[in-house]
Specification:
The chain is mainly alpha-helical. The protein has two domains: 6-95, Arc Repressor Mutant, subunit A, CATH 1.10.10; 103-188, no CATH class. It is built from eight helices and five strands. Strands 3, 4 and 5 form a three-stranded mixed sheet that branches. The protein has a two-stranded antiparallel ribbon with strand order 1-2. The longest helix is centred in the first third of the chain and has 19 residues, at 6-24. The radius of gyration is 16 Å and the shape is globular. It starts with 5 loop residues before the first helix and ends with a helix. Mean pLDDT is 88; it is low at 31-35.
Length: 191
């Protein structure tokens, strides 16, 4: 089994978002495609824009590395939130570093994302964005963990917040990483 890939983090955070949606509601997700379950490989493919083959391989890698487990009753993958949090906070920026690029139009990420805006006054003049033609903001480009992230986050605000926090950790200085890590801990570990 090969090591973890960046899209594995996107898939795991989407699974966390689906779990939270389920917990918030009546226990069953409202799903616009009745023939597809959101936790299915096909459901995740349509939600994330990642192929079924890659989703399946991603889940296998995540289970083999301990970032996910298979639920005994349903058989569906469940993120191991504690391990996922630990990896994101302590290892992600070394395995999948982010380097700010050229100015471009895109979707704000890190502490420029709408749900994180104003939580930290940045020393830089520019915001970070995921390049996207439909983006309204100008900023320094940052490659997302997977190419379909800009589209996927427009359909899921929780996923957007998680991935923006991940980018704050990938891009930030010590203070920003600490703040993003605390926020991620509150959301992911419910602390």
């Amino acid at each position: 089994m090969n090591g973890i890939k960046s899209q594995d983090i996107v898939v795991l955070l989407k699974l966390v978002s689906l779990q939270e949606e389920e917990e918030k509601g009546s226990g069953a997700l409202q799903w616009s495609f009745p023939s597809e379950a959101p936790y299915s490989v096909r459901g995740l493919e349509s939600l994330l824009g990642i192929s079924k083959t890659e989703i399946n391989a991603s889940i296998k890698r995540s289970v083999s590395t301990g970032l996910a487990i298979k639920d005994r009753d349903s058989g569906r993958p469940k993120p191991n939130r504690r391990n996922l949090h630990s990896f994101i906070v302590h290892g992600l920026k070394f395995v999948f570093p982010a380097k700010p690029g050229a100015m471009t139009r895109g979707i704000p990420t890190a502490f420029a994302a709408p749900m994180l805006k104003g939580q930290l006054v940045s020393g830089g003049e520019y915001i970070y964005v995921w390049p996207a033609a439909e983006g309204r903001d100008m900023g320094q480009s940052v490659q997302p963990l997977f190419k379909s992230v800009p589209e996927a986050v427009q359909r899921d605000e929780r996923l957007y917040e998680y991935l923006a926090l991940v980018d704050a950790i990938r891009l930030g200085n010590q203070r920003e990483v600490g703040l993003a890590g605390d926020r991620l801990s509150e959301r992911l570990l419910k602390k």
